[in-house]
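Issue: ligand-bound run for adenosine monophosphate - logging full I/O for the record.

Environment: standard queue, default settings, no custom constraints.

Inputs:
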Amino acid sequence: MEIHHTVAQCKLALRDLQQKGQKIGFIPTMGALHQGHLSLVKMAQKSCDIVVVSIYVNPTQFGPNEDFALYPRTLTEDALKLQEVGCNFLFAPSTEEIYYPNEDLYIQMPSLSKRWEGAMRPGHFEGVALVVTKLLGIVRPDKAFFGHKDFQQSVLIRQLARDLFLDCEIITGPTLREADGLAMSSRNRYLSAHERSLAPVIYNTLMHIKKKSVMGAPTEPLQKEAIQLLKAVDEIHVDYFDIVSSKTLEPLQLLDPSQEPVAIVAVKLGTTRLLDNMKIFD
Ligand code: AMP
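Outputs:
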């Protein structure tokens, strides 16, 4: 596996491969890799000649009181995991490589970025949109792979790539889960043993709501029941639980299958924020 830390080296190596007709698949990450990330690598390998992973903890997507400084940085272990699954290329830049000191670029997508996670984490998606645009500009992949786990992010990036004519196909991979249903996340390592034992309530609540869902039914009783189930655990604070349209991220009043409803949830368990979501109809 080639490892590059500078934009110049990364571009040079990739442009050469692209000129030779190699199809590039790209997975942007913040590292602390788990099987969820690696599943996207494996997915990319099926349809691309070269798989590129980036590891970059992007400061502009963290709020002032968030965990930027504490976010796990495990580059050596991550590189080994990528090597093991046959990833071809790791790009791990420093912030000096990604942001110019006098930078003045700002991407706004207010109708997608201001609600849900964007409301809880002001500025988060502006930072995500900016870094993903830069990374796609550096790597220029044919396909980029994102997890359904970060559902709002995947919707936003799909639209960003479309609106900027990036010529990059955006592919969303399924959420990988632990055996008890907890969605894999780099932040799960922050949970104490007790909190970890409580965490499956998120998946169990989503599954319960999915099973109770009937086409055309009102969403409000389902939402209320889900919040009750989550709040029954004292250590959990519910940031939001709602059922939204996959297309617009707007809350749905009724379970209209043409809107491809998705239940989205964010909770704080102790001090750790956990996100999850589930399609209501398969
Ligand atoms: P992150 O390192 O958290 O920025 O995640 C990098 C990519 O991996 C994003 O597209 C995430 O949606 C995706 N991802 C994170 N967790 C999972 C998971 N459990 N299953 C599948 N993909 C995931």
